[in-house]
Amino acid sequence: MSRELVNEICAAQPGAEWSDPWGGGHDCWKVAGKIFALTGTVGTHVTVKTESAEMASFLIETGVADRAPYMHASWVALPLDAAPDELAHRIRHSYRLVRTALSRKAQAALPPL
């Protein structure tokens, strides 16, 4: 899967916004100002949130993902050449986790799911 396809999946999420907050070519995808997916300047992985540090450890131990540098233990880095459905599933799941953690007011301001 390419970085462009990752960006397409991210852009398709309701209320998703792109930014490059650190400069230099990052693809940082946010919903209501909160990151749900991030591709670094090198662009070999997409970093996404999982429901827990335990799930992240499981994905890392089984070889599905790597530890996400600079992020909390519940985040993982998936290689861009991972199975397309796994990558799409993890990006959408990360989006939903971040979106549901928003305040009711922030969620109400977003387009419907």
From TrEMBL:
It comes from the Bacteria. Keywords: DNA-binding. GO terms for molecular function: DNA binding. It holds the Pfam family YjbR. InterPro entries: YjbR-like_sf, YjbR/MT2646/Rv2570-like. This is MmcQ/YjbR family DNA-binding protein.
